[in-house]
Every structure is written in C-alpha cells, then in structure tokens.
Amino acid sequence: MGHAPVPVGMDGESQSHPGGADGFEQGSIVADPRQRRILAILRRQGEPIPTVELGTRLAASDESAAAAEQVELDLRHRCLPKLESVGWVERRPAGVCPVDPLPLECRSFDTPPVRDPDDPLWDVVGALLTRPYREAILSTVAARGDRLTVDSLAACLRDEDAVTWADDDRTLALSLHHVDLPKLSEMGAVAYDRDERTVAPVDRLSTCVARLGLDV
C-alpha cells in the first residue's frame, strides 16, 4: 500500500506526502537558519553545552536582530524539542549535544558541512529531505539537459522506480506541477514554466547535482 496521494492545488509543503511527517520535520529544520546554527554550534563545541550557554551563543550568531530573550525562548520551546523529535540532539546532565553520527549526514546524498549553516545548498537539502524522490527529479532533469514536459518527467520517474506512492501517473504529474517543480524552481535548482508545464535545467543545477553527489 503506497502513501496517500498529495492534495493538489497548494503551493506549500504538506505533511501528507511521500516521506511522511519525519521527512517534513527534517526538511523544515534544515530550511530554518536558526536550527542550522544550533547544529553548527553544537558540532563545533564537540561536547555538551548547557542550554543557557547555547542560547547566549545562538543569540550572538543570530542575524534576525531578535532580542536575546526571544532567541532563548525559541530555543527552549521550539528548536530543541523539534531537534529532539527527529533524533538529532540529546539532552544530558551536562547540557545539549548532537547525535553522532548525525542522521542528516547518513543520507543517500551528500550535505554541506554542518559547521557551515549559511551554505546556500541547505535550501535544496531541505527540499530533498521533505520529499526524497526529488533527488530523482534533479538527476533526471540534469541528465536530459533539455526541456521536459511534466508528463514526460513523470514517466521517467516511473521508469526509474523513483516513486511508488502515487496511485497513477496523473496523480504524480499533478504533484510535480503543483508542489515539487514550483518548489525546486523557487530555490533556483530548475526552471519551471507553469503555463507550458515544462521544466528545464539552469546553471545552478549542475553545481547542486555535483555537490549532492547525485547520479546522472
């Protein structure tokens, strides 16, 4: 039994998608600069950090101009609970520490160094964590090197057994059109023409594929 079809007609992500709630949570964490900075601070430290000290360091590195008190509240009530829920950090008597090896670094694709939270590739990593079959989307578009229709791309993904969740090709094509391709286009990984329903590679795609270590 595959995953339930993704509701169409929406522009954002949803937890009702292939990859499940865990993938959604992981993708949302990676897409959040503050969460990435927390992981970077913990990884650089190499030993548990008391929550108060972690909050102080996080506030000092935060670029949103939020008050230190707001940053610490967000750390305690949102950030750390989310990181714990996906198993990326642990709370010990001496403080907070990252899980080693970090599950994020044990994926089928490569990631930027956790110590570099501002690497622009993190936006693409977040998109892949949310919907793992997006790896195949990027690989297929890069391999073809030319414009593809949504229906052609869906057929390629089917042939490569990249997706098993959708009930039929129409469901897959609709998900590509309404969710996946607009998302990847928004972050500059591909170019998507909604009116023509065609996707094409862009200059950044070759860099993304190479750095992620995707097969082409």
Please outline what is shown here.
The chain has 216 residues and is mostly helical. Helices cover 51% and strands 8% of the residues. Helix 3 packs across helix 4 and helix 7 (150-159) crosses helix 8 (169-186).
| Extended strand count | 5
CATH superfamily of the largest domain: Winged helix-like DNA-binding domain superfamily/Winged helix DNA-binding domain
What is the domain total for the residues? 2
Mean pLDDT: 87
SS class: mainly alpha
Number of helices: 9
At CATH level 3, the topology of the largest domain is Arc Repressor Mutant, subunit A
3D shape: elongated
CATH class of the largest domain: Mainly Alpha
User: Any idea what the radius of gyration is?
Assistant: 19 Å
The helix-strand sequence is: HHHHEEHHEHHEEH
Helix content: 40-55%
Give the terminus-to-terminus CA distance. Answer: 29 Å
**Low-confidence parts:** 1-11
CATH architecture of the largest domain: Orthogonal Bundle
| Biggest sheet: strand arrangement | 3-5-4
Largest sheet, strands/sense/barrel:
3 strands, antiparallel
Q: In percent, how much strand structure appears in the residues?
A: 5-15%
Molecular structure report:
The protein has 216 residues and is mostly helical. The chain is 51% helix and 8% strand. The protein has 2 domains: 23-106, Winged helix-like DNA-binding domain superfamily/Winged helix DNA-binding domain (Arc Repressor Mutant, subunit A, Orthogonal Bundle), CATH 1.10.10.10; 131-212, Winged helix-like DNA-binding domain superfamily/Winged helix DNA-binding domain (Arc Repressor Mutant, subunit A). The protein has helices at 20-30, 33-45, 51-61, 68-85, 122-130, 134-144, 150-159, 169-186, 203-212; strands spanning 89-92, 95-98, 148-149, 190-193, 198-201. A hairpin with a 2-residue loop joins strand 1 (89-92) and strand 2. The two termini are 29 Å apart.
